[in-house]
Amino acid sequence: MPTLEITAMIGCPLKCTFCPQDKLRGLYGKNTKYFTLENFQTVISKVPKHVRIDFSGMAEPWANPNATKMLRHVLEQGFNVAIYTTLYGMSAENRAEVISLLQTHVAQVEVLNLHLPDAKGNMLGWRHSQEYEQNLTAFVQFGLSGALRRFEAMTMDSSGEVHPDLQHLGIKLGSFYGHTRAGNVEEQKIGEQAHCATPEHHSAVVCPFARFYDNNVCLPNGDVYLCCMDYGLQHKVGNLLTQGYYEMFASGGLSALQAENMQPRFSKESLCKTCDRATLVKVGDSHLMWT
User: Which tens digit of pLDDT belongs to each residue from 84-103?
Assistant: First the structure.
């Protein structure tokens, strides 16, 4: 399924240990920090309706004050959506409006995923407040109501334990097994927490999530990058403020990556060659084998 993840701002204040914000900020530079509503609407006007719009990207969506207006615009335009949120930056007013929007457009909501602060303190910028707890309770109640086709919650803790300030709520989640986002996370910041080491693939690779390289991330300046692993801004597809959607894919930004991924060797020029999610394509006795 083609998706476009919206990075609503650069420099997420939550500073999660498994999220390389410093690297992203340094490479993005002094471009516009927040996705303006006007630029967002321009970008969305270029995107075909079969592309799912994901409120996730490389930062908490509601760290942008316009996030609720963005969600309303996308739903009213008829797009399907997925929402991955920590609820950071969401006021009580936002919460009521967002839940109302999701109820009204429930057929368009494919995923609602809540990312909670964990017992190991991986969400460094999170602070407890009564407003946050009330928002969390309201979203959990809505998610468990059965209205949504898919409701999830997660932490970044292998035990599934939430932050001590929330443990009185009785929330117990599944275990989390981390990764380095294809080598973009510095492993020393993870410490001894369970995670997949950065691989080096010495075979041809394909992406099991996006065979056409169309699970992309859009930044506030309109730049579109390969995927949610590309915090190093290594593979630029194009720019949706200056190009059309299909024009962007035809402009050649991905051709070098495609060529590297076809090669039966490791290459630092391909992010996919260090991605633990990649499907390996190996030459067998008489045919190619996907492993």
Answer: 999 999 999 999 999 999 99
The DSSP code sequence of the chain is --EEEE--BSS-TT-BTTS-HHHHHHHHTTS-SB--HHHHHHHHHHS-TTSEEEE-TTS-GGGSTTHHHHHHHHHHTT--EEEEE--TT--HHHHHHHHHHHHHTGGGEEEEEEE--BTT--BTT----HHHHHHHHHHHHHHTTT-SS-EEEE-S-TT-BBPGGGGGG--B-----EE-TTTTS-HHHHTTS-EEPPP---SEEE-SS-TTS-EEEE-TTSEEES-TT-TT---EEEETTTS-HHHHHHTTTTHHHHHHHHSSS--TT-GGGG-TTPEEEEE-SSSEEE-
Tens-place pLDDT, residues 121-165: 999 999 999 999 999 999 999 999 999 999 999 999 999 999 999
